[in-house]
């Protein structure tokens, strides 16, 4: 009886080994089915830098083995903390735009492919220089700038909008420059708080002539000189290619009898 048990045990072990070999064979068949064999090659053919982006073109030797192609961009040559952008489709020739880059900067660019079996192939690293932003009407027209100004005791929320003249780009309307009247509902949408300005595109300054009416009674807007003694125009310094505007000098609103409100210089507004 013991001899018979041993025979059955041996048969079971042989069967189990055969089963394992079968599973192993099946896995090998699956792996072989998806194996790449010779890896596809990828290369960058051209890189062109713009002010805040880079156009990268390249080639892939065998796109049939690839599920994704794209580019990696880093501020360091070792590609540490690289950001990635993928192409819209996999093809032998591809083009990708890497975005959100800083102007006048050096970046390192590397193309990549992800193969059908989830392996990554990289190209050699190339450099690209981003250019200066083009300062134009598009940087200002229709944009709203928000921030706060102070009268020395209280702060006032300011949301100022610029409208560049379609026929003469040196002319601009400045809407809701005075937060005091805007806070009481005297806003540009209702015909108030609208002022004419002149843009100096070379020096990036908007000048608003003092004495323009707010639209309420005979109240007008004015700037003041550095000493705070005499009326002056209001100067808006355009910075960061239209992303920021700084109100250079003191300004306020009032009538011929007295100032109603005077704001401190240096109010900084950010584009939305």
Describe this structure in words.
This protein has 272 residues and is mostly beta strands. It has helices at residues 2-34, 179-183, and strands spanning 42-49, 54-60, 66-74, 83-86, 93-98, 106-115, 120-122, 126-129, 144-150, 155-164, 171-175, 194-200, 205-208, 220-224, 231-232, 234-239, 244-247, 251-254, 259-263, 267-271. An 8-stranded antiparallel barrel has the order 9-10-11-12-13-16-17-20. Strands 3, 4, 6, 7 and 8 form a 5-stranded antiparallel β-sheet that branches. The protein has a 4-stranded antiparallel β-sheet with strand order 15-14-18-19, with no helix packed on it. It is elongated and about 90 Å long.
Quick rundown:
By secondary structure, this protein is mainly beta. Helices cover 14% and strands 42% of the residues.
Sheet having the most strands? 8 strands, antiparallel, barrel
The string of secondary-structure elements, in order, is HEEEEEEEEEEEHEEEEEEEEE
Number of strands: 20
Overall radius of gyration: 34 Å
Poorly predicted regions:
1-24, 30-34
Query: Helix/strand/pairing class, anyone?
Result: mainly beta
Mean pLDDT: 89
